[in-house]
Amino acid sequence: MGTRIESNSSLWALGFFFLHYYIQTIDIVACTLQAGLAKLIGLAGETNVQGEEQKKLDVLSNEVFVKALVSSGRTCILVSEEDEEATFVDPALRGKYCVVFDPLDGSSNIDCGVSIGTIFGIYAINDGVDPKIEDVLQPGKNMVAAGYCMYGSSCTLVLSTGKGVNGFTLDPSLGEFILTHPDIKIPKKGKIYSVNEGNAKNWDAPTAKYVEKCKFPQDGSPAKSLRYIGSMVADVHRTLLYGGIFLYPADKKSPNGKLRVLYEVFPMSYLMEQAGGQAFTGKQRALDLIPTKIHERSPIFLGSYDDVEEIKALYAAEGQK
């Protein structure tokens, strides 16, 4: 039987902020479950700063979270995937936390009912200091918390405040999150790889060699199984629980990678490291990367420690040629 979220003392460092987050998450869950009936599926008729067509739930989710985070009185800067510029909170409502988030990851899958979710990371500034954009353009290792909430067969919240990773499940009858996955640890090596093989013709040599090794190992070990949903939250959640590796490499079409550093790469890398795994960009530890723009992109390889070690070795060998 799970433990209610209130009893997990590690969350109280950011307690009031998270309370607002949880309440708004429940609202998003309700909207997601009723999306078809409430005419919330389909396109909103606009594109976001990334040039992606916005879904109706994208727009609604962004509005809900921005409003909640501002009204919490605990935030000073908000960076959302859906907004071109950072939001600076009015001084009267200002707090010490900078929040970077993707309000609805995997939104291209909304209409077909695939699991989607919210990804977030949090930085802190010193009390009494006026916030500036440099406060979010920091390495991911400086985050004080990160997590995601997945909306699927159940509503699952996975969270780290720098002392391990815990998973919570929403009990709809109580309207509360229950601790169901305490102290999540990713297996040291996994049996699954997760990548969009439709991009294979555009991959660099290390990625191509690694995937070939997954499918046709030369050391007598079993081949890995391919599992790819196309929703980062869902693919990373499975990787975190079962082990293996999630890959979104750079390629000829996207030489800087596709995923956004601040609100996709950093939070997921933070969780992976806290759970005992690794995250690598193809050049360096992901959490050491210093972004220069709020919507900057990066390649990413994250998952089980030994699996990421293998692809790191392939990139190192390529660099020596």
UniProtKB/TrEMBL annotation:
Domain Fructose-1-6-bisphosphatase class I N-terminal: 33-182
Enzyme Commission code(s) on record: 3.1.3.11
GO cellular component: cytosol
Keyword Isomerase set for record: no
Pathway named in the protein's UniProt entry: Carbohydrate biosynthesis
Catalytic reaction equation(s): beta-D-fructose 1,6-bisphosphate + H2O = beta-D-fructose 6-phosphate + phosphate
Domain Fructose-1-6-bisphosphatase class 1 C-terminal: 186-315
Keywords assigned by UniProt, alphabetized: Carbohydrate metabolism, Cytoplasm, Hydrolase, Magnesium, Metal-binding
Subcellular location: Cytoplasm
GO MF term set: fructose 1,6-bisphosphate 1-phosphatase activity; metal ion binding
Highest taxon above the source species: Eukaryota
Signal sequence region: none
Cofactor: Mg(2+)
SUPFAM superfamilies: Carbohydrate phosphatase
Single biological process term from Gene Ontology: fructose 6-phosphate metabolic process
Similarity remark: Belongs to the FBPase class 1 family.
PANTHER family hit by this protein: FRUCTOSE-1,6-BISPHOSPHATASE, CYTOSOLIC, FRUCTOSE-1,6-BISPHOSPHATASE-RELATED
Protein name per UniProt: Fructose-1,6-bisphosphatase, cytosolic
Species this chain originates from: Salvia splendens
